[in-house]
Specification:
Layout lengths: L2 H8 L4 H14 L3 E4 L4 H13 L4 E2 L5 E4 L13 E5 L11 E3 H12 L7 E9 L8 E7 L2 H10 L1 E2 L1 H5 L8 E6 L3 E2 L2 E2 L6 E5 L4 E5 L4 H4 L1 H17 L2 E3 L2 E6 L5 E7 L6 H5 L5 E4 L3 E6 L2 E6 L3 E5 L9 H7 L5 E4 L2 E3 L2 E3 L10 E4 L2 E4 L18 E5 L16 E10 L8 E3 L3 H9 L2 E3 L11 E3 L12 H9 L10 E6 L16 H12 L5 E4 L2 E4 L1 H12 L5 H8 L1 E2 H15 L6 H21 L3 E2 L7
Parallel strand pairs: 1-6, 3-21, 4-5, 4-12, 7-9, 9-13, 16-27, 27-31
Antiparallel strand pairs: 2-3, 6-7, 6-8, 10-11, 12-13, 14-18, 15-16, 15-17, 18-19, 19-27, 20-26, 21-26, 22-23, 24-25, 28-31, 29-30, 32-33, 34-35
């Protein structure tokens, strides 16, 4: 480290940060160490370094670049992502872990000398807006300029924020090395490891480049934040944040948690609404109101099937000048192409497999697609024309409503509002999602995914749910909670809803916040009245909504709901859960049983609940 970089490091006046940097240098043995501040010159240095090193290549459109991960480094490595635990713990859910000392010894051996002949980049970030009580500080060390550049798009700069720590050790630390490289990609994939130390708020990652494994600030930091939130009485959630635009210029802020392929991004990007964030939210109680910030400032999104018809806002950002990183898509003459973009794809080019041509097959004889199913785009939120005006407000935005959504073909009503906050937490904690063709294994298998967060929960499940249940204490305004399901089908397998119907569910829920619509009480929650939906469909979609459609969609499938309660009872019978949650499970089971006795029918029309 030269004198200029040493001075940059010393100016943060934090002995704890300086110590971890020194330890990382001694361990990884880089040829050069560069400290990056918040200056435009330093930020541009990182971007240019990625181009110089060949980790990214310029595309034809101004500001656009392409990055390729290794052929076998195209997604999150769940098997080798482990918690470092110094003692056995029962979280009530299956977690991947390794004994701490054993894990540290292993990953240190892989990191030892991993940056020899390479440049170490020392980065400082803020998880959340600057000058905000929500925000956490993060120190990232990496030898990948692509990783560092990606984080410049996804997170807010934090060098000046670190100075405000006043020497505190209250920050997250991430150490990453791409390891040994050939043709610019990590080659020792058998030694790919991502280890999370919850006790020290540290993450170690080696022998990988794919952003889900290498960007410490993404889902790895999320795990650390969930533990911190549960200790301090706030929430770190796998949620979008959006502004829903109601009558007379009214904006109501929603958050929503959905497992993969269940409509999370499509909900956040509904035309006419504004987006604050699409992935991770920090929620805190301030002056009797739940407020929320997006801890990120960008999007690392799946690009497959993004097109002008279904995703007009994102598609526009991807096809106009601006700083965008494409990863693992096809390029031809400097133009990116991807599956599902509804545009003619060239029959040859360069992609994640190298030289590509239509019909190319891999070693197993399987045809190689033009772009990987998990190909991505990385861009700043301010590249989107629907970004909310308060997206970077250090005070956050007030949460008035929360959505929990899953993928369910035969049970859950398209939208149902919870009876109480505790019942809403119960609805979120019992989210299920059916596997799709994009998932390895059998299709249509229901996967339990509490709060769409199962992969990232880093505390006992009962503790996590308890923190949600008690979160309304001392609140002046309690948000409404609704469960949504966009994937209900009829007996022939046909979807009962159109893709844009979710706009109506969203605006009905927005009106419910202000008691503008009455609701029908059912054993599973409150559902819309037909007359209100009919008016909304005409107003919002210029579409006639029939009584037949309403009955098909909002009839209570009692038997199916009872089967779900049986599944939930089996899941939770051996998990130590809060009494309030157990009571909600019993109460809903009882309501369904009594309804079945009263009406006899297996499927009950919504009109039978409202007479």
């Amino acid at each position: 480290m030269d004198k200029i970089d040493l001075q940059k490091l010393e100016e943060i006046n934090n002995k704890h940060a300086i110590k971890v940097v020194e330890e990382a240098i001694q361990l990884c043995k880089p040829t050069k160490v560069t400290v990056i501040t918040d200056s435009k010159e330093d930020i541009n240095y990182v971007r240019e370094l990625s181009l110089i090193k060949g980790e990214e290549t310029k595309l034809k459109m101004e500001g656009h670049t392409i990055h390729f991960d290794g052929y076998y480094d195209q997604g999150r490595d769940k098997v080798n992502t482990k918690y470092l635990l110094s003692k056995d713990v029962d979280w009530g859910i299956k977690v991947n872990s390794i004994e701490k000392e054993k894990g540290l010894k292993e990953i240190y051996s892989y990191l030892d000398g991993s940056m020899a002949g390479k440049e170490m980049l020392v980065r400082f970030f803020s998880l959340g807006p600057a000058n905000s009580i929500f925000s956490l500080k993060a120190l990232q060390i990496t030898d990948s300029a692509y990783v560092a550049h990606s984080e410049d798009l996804l997170y807010r700069q934090g060098y000046e924020e670190f100075k405000k720590l006043n020497g505190s050790s209250d920050f997250f630390f991430f150490l990453h090395s791409a390891g040994r490289l050939e043709n610019g990609v990590s080659v020792d994939i058998d030694k790919r490891r991502i280890y999370i130390d919850l006790e020290e708020n540290r993450v170690y990652s080696v022998n990988n480049q794919y952003a889900g494994n290498s960007l410490g600030l993404k889902k790895l930091a999320f795990r650390l934040a969930i533990k911190k939130a549960n200790e301090e009485g706030w929430l770190a959630e796998h949620m979008f944040i959006m502004g829903v635009h109601g009558p007379n210029g009214r904006i109501t802020y929603f958050t929503g948690a959905y497992p993969s392929a269940c409509g999370k991004t499509s909900t956040a990007m509904i035309p006419g609404q504004t987006v604050v964030g699409d992935d991770i939210a920090y929620l805190k109680k301030i002056d009797g109101v739940i407020r929320v910030v997006n801890m990120e400032s960008g999007i690392f999104g799946i690009i497959h099937s993004v097109n002008s018809e279904n995703d007009p806002v994102i598609y526009q950002a991807l096809t106009t000048p601006g700083e965008v990183i494409f990863s693992n898509v096809l390029t031809n003459n400097g133009v990116p192409y991807w599956g599902g973009m509804r545009k003619d794809i060239p029959d040859k080019g360069i992609n994640f497999s190298g030289e590509w041509f239509e019909g190319k097959k891999d070693n197993q004889g399987k045809e190689t697609p033009c772009s990987h199913k998990n190909a991505r785009y990385t861009l700043r939120l301010n590249e989107l024309n629907n970004i909310d005006s308060k997206a970077n407000d250090p005070d956050g935005v007030p949460v008035k409503a929360i959505f929990y959504g899953g993928r369910d073909s035969d049970t859950t009503i398209p939208i149902v509002e919870s009876l109480t906050w505790a019942h809403g937490v119960f609805l979120g904690a019992t989210v299920e999602s059916e596997t799709t063709a994009a998932t390895l294994g059998a299709r249509g298998v229901r996967k339990y995914n509490p709060m769409a967060n199962l992969d990232f929960i880093s505390v006992p499940l009962g503790t996590y749910i308890e923190n949600h249940l008690k979160f309304t204490k001392d609140l002046k305004v309690i948000p409404k909670i609704s469960a949504t399901n966009y994937f209900l089908k009829d007996k022939t397998g046909k979807y009962l809803n159109g893709k844009m119907d979710k706009r109506v569910w969203l605006l009905w829920a927005e009106g419910r916040v202000y008691d503008e619509y009455e609701a029908i009480e059912t054993p599973v929650g409150l559902i819309p009245k037909y007359e209100d939906l009919k008016k909304l469909f005409i107003r919002e979609l210029n579409k006639e909504y029939t009584r037949v459609e309403y009955i098909q969609q909002f009839s209570l499938r009692v038997g199916k709901y009872q089967e779900k309660m049986e599944r939930m009872s089996r899941i939770f019978e051996n998990i130590e859960m809060p009494t309030a949650f157990t009571e909600e499970l019993k109460a809903q089971t009882k309501r369904l049983r009594e309804t079945r006795i009263k009406f006899v029918e297996d499927i009950i029309s919504p009109f039978q609940f409202f007479r």
